[in-house]
TrEMBL record, chain A:
This is ATP-binding cassette domain-containing protein. Its main location: membrane. It comes from Sinorhizobium medicae. Pfam families: ABC_tran, TOBE_2. Keywords: ATP-binding, Cell membrane, Membrane, Nucleotide-binding, Translocase, Transport. Residues 4-242 form the ABC transporter domain.
Amino acid sequence: MPTINLRGAQKNYGVNSANAVSDLDLEIRDGEFMCLLGPSGCGKTTTLRMIAGLENLSGGEIRVGDRVVDCVSGGVFVPPEKREMGLVFQSYALWPHLTIERNTDFGLRLRKLPKAEREERVERVMQALDIAKYRDRYPSQLSGGQQQRVALARMLAINPGVLLLDEPLSNLDARLRLEMRAELKRLHKEFKTTIVFVTHDQWEAMTLATTIAVMNEGTLQQIGTPNDIYDRPANRFVAEFVGSPPINILDFGDPGTSDVTDKAEAYLAAHLPGLRSIGSVGIRPEAIGYAARTEDVPEGSFSGETTVTGVLPTGGNWILELRTDNHTLFLTTHVPPRVEQGARVLFFAPPEALHVFDADGRRIAEADDRLRSTATYN
Amino acid sequence: MALLSESAKAVAAANGPAAPTAWQAWRYRLKVALREPTTLIGVLTALLFTYLIVVPIISIVLDAARVQFGHERRLSKDVGEFTLYYLDRVLFSPVSADLFWRPLLNTLSVAMGAILLSLVIGTVLAWLISRTDMFGRRWFATALIVPYMLPAWTFALAWTTLFKNRTVGGQPGWLEAVGLTPPDWLAYGRFPITIILALHYTPFVILLFGSALRRFDSQLEDSARILGARHHQVALQIILPLMRPALLSSMVLIFAKCLGEFGVPYVLGLPVKFEVLSTSLFRSIASRQTGVAGVIAGSIMLIGIITLLIDARLVREARRFVTIGSKGSMDRQSRLGRMRLPAAGFAATVFLMSVGLPLLTLFLSTIMKLPARFTLDNFTLDYWIGRDLDTVALKTGILLSPDLWAAAKNTLTIVGLASVTSGILGLLVGYVVIRTPVRLLSVYLRQVTFLPYLVPGIAFAAAYLSLFAVPRGPMPALYGTVVILVLALIADQMPYASRAGISAMTQLGKDPEEAAQIAGAGWLRRMTSIVIPIQKGSLVTGVLLPFISGIKGLSLFVILAVPSTDVLTTYSLRLVDYHYTQAANAVVLIIAAIAYLGTLITQKLTRTNLAEGLGS
């Protein structure tokens, strides 16, 4: 499948309503496993449906390779049935009046393939997804997980160049979800399809995708590898959306209102001389350490005094809730904590763990680079 | 120049497409909208229904304000010119009392009486059926709905069979025959009409009130009781206020139905000149007073529309009472104790009065030579299957009469054709309403197909007569043909058909069809292999329901049918007019049997309780 290109794609439902998707540029390369990640209502499903052709554009264009499949100003619209893509719906959308085998066979019949080939391909995907034993049943006789497999098989049978998945795992229980994740990764390898996957679940995105596109309020926030997204979030939205417990943000609003932000400001002023207009700084919970005594705090790290107000075990890991004057910080650790609730401790974070954002919430790349080089000096 | 345009292209390519101009955006939208036949079908059906529903209504309203043929001299204006003469005649002239005001008062009083009576009987029965341990409550739940499945004037005929007195010629009623002359007030007019309409529409109350009672969250009751409320306090302060929307709604619906009811007042009102709006309209049409008919039909429509707007408001209001779902809506029953038997007795009495007695009377009347004489030699099957009878016309039993079979054939073709068409159109409308990207089209189709619901059948028929009685444009005069009946019936059934179609398509959702689209299926393919197979059941219902209601329908046919296009209902009415009581009763029994069996078959086929789809 050639590269799919969205350029300036836009969607609004009605003249006066806000854009569901605005000015979206997105490139999906052959063989990629791309996740569209974002909170509900962020436009990710609309984007997927625009790629499939189930939703027409309000502006911009979509190309598949050199072929324009959808373009408002060019007056081009290729209907979904001519785009040769596969889409697995959140509701699975199995046809209730057809057996599992006929459901799987539907697309092949439309393509008027010879019977022998049809049977062979149906057999192959049904085997691959382990649903061959249900071939004569109707969808209503299957469990959610089995229906999910049929929905996948139905689309894989036509061997689409790109497989679009709309939150396909959200209706499954936790165990099945894990199994299906592994299954999807295996299928991606086996069938060598490009996959575009919509989810609001960051772990799903992190574990599956080769590329993640984070969206919010109809606009693309960041696109990159899972590590990029996590380690170098392009803005505060991405930083706060990805990660659990969420990143700790110290907002440099009015100086003097909070001891810990003042400290952070002073720390950054010292480490990043000449850098103005810092709006906030973020520290991931797992990058924060704590110590009982000042001498145990690593030199050069950002630190401060705090009170432990909560110790929350999560089974194998612990979340510590730390309270400094009027800020709450969370830190996570996999070492059993040696402190009680109410203890006074020092928290600390190495300079390379600080994510610096400007007043508009955008990442200041220069600051991150300089802080990381500081770290290597030490 | 060339260089410039090259670089301009490069810039455009680098920046992605430029923002579309308004024209480009419009052209694109049009292309998307016309890509599939959905919008085209939508536009075509919208045009069709505009012609079949909106134009007739406009036509009759215009008739009311234009000089009609034959009045040029009197009004010294040409035919078709604007005039207020008819409005004045119906509303203000000396004859207005006979034409409009008295019929209006009669309509209102009969409707109010019927509403009160059916509310009293209906609420008690609804409560007994849904919330008590009355004997045989399951059986009664179905049995007490039967009156609604039968044509209302079945009861009117049964009533005349029993109570007809010497005011009217023909075979005497049973009471008259045994020497007890019933007074006119008992035999004809307001009293019997009110009673019959009340019995006929009681199922409405039982269903609407009963379902509200069943959905009622018994935790609301329990909370009141825990706070110390007694039984009657709970009933008056908690249950009744919450039931008010259901009660008001059934009142309004009964009123709307009474407004259009023709058969009952025609059979029972005529002998004593007791007129309601529908019979007054019928008389104006029969005497070719087109302008006057226009005014009366317009008034009936107006009252109908106002009534149903009130209902829509009540339904909205009722939503305020929707309590957040809970597990409390369990089927809790009150124990009747000693009252168990009397309660069942009451339900049985209502059943006997509203189903058993009328049907038995009708049936006996068709196998008895002389009324009310229960001797063996008085019984005969001649009226059903006799030959060479000693009568002026209709010399054979009804089953051997070619007229009956012609009427039956007409009924089947006309009603059959109309219901198949409206069933299919209903599904199409549902499809377009849910799927079209053109919102305006969707809204218009939804509204226009609902419009006939606001217009009582008799007024709608008058509107058809006004539009199609004379040739207009390419359309020849349709009066007297089967076509006008089929068209009117289709239009009349569209509210139910389209509502069924819309709800079926809403339930189906977009996903199965979109999945087929993704798999590569074009529109036609999706319709034939996905949408129609899945919607098979609702298509069957969408055809059968209009069929049943068409079979027992009278008001449309009575205006639009002529002897050559007689259907069973008009045929039996004609027999009533000729005083062939036994034959008329036999035909009505046949109609009732078809309607009842049809309802049962539909219920079996769709495994639904038709009672819930009531209102059709």
